[in-house]
Amino acid sequence: MNQKDFLFFQRLSKPEGKIDVVLDTDTYNEVDDQFALAYMLCRKDRINLKAICAAPFHNAKSDNPADGMEKSFQEIHHILNLMGKEEYAGLVYRGSTEWLPDEETPVHSEAADKLAELAFGYSPEKPLYIVAIGAITNVASALLIKPEIADRIVIVWLGGNAHDWPDNKEFNCGQDVAAARVVFGCGAAVVQLPCAGVVSGFKTTAGELEMFLRGKNKLCDYLVDIVERDGAAESPYKTWSRIIWDVTAAGWLLEEDFMRDKLVPAPIPQYDHHYSFDPDRHFIRYVYWINRDALFEDLFEKLAQVQ
After folding, report:
1. Which CATH superfamily is domain 3-304 in?
2. How far apart are CA 51 and CA 85, in angstroms?
3. Which of 25, 147, 225, 240 could lock onto 235 through a cystine, CB 3.0 to 4.6 A?
4. Are the C-beta atoms of residues 114 and 4 closer than 8 Å to each other?
5. Around Cβ 182, how many Cβ atoms within 10 Å?
6. E strand or H helix at 103, and its extent?
7. Strand order of the sheet with strand 128-132?
8. How far apart are CA 180 and CA 192, in angstroms?
9. What are the residue ranges of helices labelled H in 58-109?
10. In angstroms, rounded to a whole number, what is the distance separating the alpha carbons of residues 36 and 244?
C-alpha cells in the first residue's frame, strides 16, 4: 500500500483524541439538529468546534431553501443562547440559498467559502472533520471551490437510506442529489450514516424525555417541548416515538463504542432516488448498527449537565 492509500484509510478510521470539527446543519428542519448541536458543544473533551454552518432545506417549515437556511441560522443562535455559549456566535455562517445547479458549479456562500478556506489549512495526516446533518450543498460547494481539500477532510454525513433499502427517497440526499454525487464521487474520506434501515432505530419517547431531561435546565425544557410538540402532531398514534437521527453523526466521532461500521465501495446516488453500485469505486465507511441505549444515555447525561 502506498503512502496516499495508507493515509486515506487512516482518515476512514475512527479518530483518536481531540479533533477539529465543523458542523453543517439544517437546524430548524426537525428537532434532532438541536440535540446534535448541543451534544457537540457538551463534548469539548473530544470536539473542538471550528465553525457552525447553516444548511438549506425546503419543506412545510420553510418557503424555499433560502428561507430554510435563514431559519436554521437563527435557530443555531437560539441554541447557543439557551446554553450560554454566545462565544460561538462568531463561528456561525450562513449557507447556500439554493441547490447545486449541476455537479460542476458551486453555490458560493459564507459557509461554503469559509469551509473551503478552513479545510485548506489541514493535511492528509491531520484532517478537518465535517459533520453534515442536512442537505450537503455547502460541503459539495466547498469541494468544487477548492478540490484540493478532498484529501484534507473527513465527511461524516447523515444522508441517504441503507444500501439495501428498497429506494433512496431520503430527505437530506433527495433535496440535492447533485451535491450528494459530488461528495460520494470526489474521493474524500466519507462516513455515511444511512437514515431508513439504520439510524431510523435511534428513537426516543415522551416518557423518556420527561424522565431524563425535563426540568434540568432551559435547554432541556426547550428540547423536550419541541420533540413532544412535533412527535404528537406528526404521529397517528398516542404511543408515538421520535427519531433523533442527527445525534448519531456526532456520536461516530466519540471514543465510546456507540456503533458498528464497515468499509464498502462508495454508492452512486441517482436522480430517480435509487443507488447504483460499482465494486471498483473507492471505499467509504458505512455505519450499519447503532447502540441506541448507550448513545442516548450519554446524550441525556451531557445535556442535563448544561448550566
Report:
1. Ribonucleoside hydrolase-like (3.90.245.10)
2. 13
3. 240
4. no
5. 23
6. none
7. 92-93, 47-54, 19-25, 128-132, 153-158, 189-193, 283-290, 259-265
8. 11
9. 65-83
10. 9
pLDDT band at 177 (very low <50, low <70, confident <90, very high): very high
Which residues are CB-neighbours of 147 under 8 A, at least 6 positions away? Answer: 186
Q: What burial class does residue 86 get, using C-beta atoms within 10 Å of its C-beta: 0-12 exposed, 13-18 middle, 19+ buried?
A: exposed
What is the number of residues in the chain? Answer: 307
Instruction: Take residue 151 and report the three cell numbers written for it.
Output: 484529501
- The DSSP line for 177-245 is HHHHHHHHHS--EEEEE-TTTTGGG-EE-HHHHHHHTTTS-HHHHHHHHHHHHHHHHH-SSTT--EE-T
Instruction: Quote the CA–CA distance of 273 and 214 in Å, as a whole number.
Output: 39
Closest CA to 55 of 233, 229, 282, 249: 249
Q: Is the dihedral of CA 285, 73, 140, 136 positive or negative?
A: positive
Within 8 A by CB and 6+ apart from 166, the residues are none
Mean pLDDT across 59-83: 97
Check if the beta carbon of residue 132 is closer than 8 Å to that of residue 156: yes
Q: How confident is the model at residue 70 (pLDDT cuts 50, 70, 90)?
A: very high
Q: Which three cell numbers stand for residue 271?
A: 436522480
Q: In whole angstroms, give the CA distance from residue 281 to residue 300.
A: 39
Q: Is the pLDDT of residue 1 over 80?
A: no
Q: For residues 13 and 10, what is the distance between their CA atoms, to the nearest angstrom? A: 5
DSSP state of 289: E
One DSSP character per residue, 14-57 reads PP-S-EEEEEEE-TTTSSHHHHHHHHHHH-TTTEEEEEEEEPP-
Q: Domain-by-domain residue ranges, the chain? A: 3-304
Q: Could you read off the pLDDT of 125-146 as tens digits, one per residue?
A: 999 999 999 999 999 999 999 9
Q: What is the pLDDT of the chain when averaged over all its residues?
A: 97
Q: How far is CA 100 from CA 28, 91, 179, 220, in A?
A: 21, 24, 6, 36
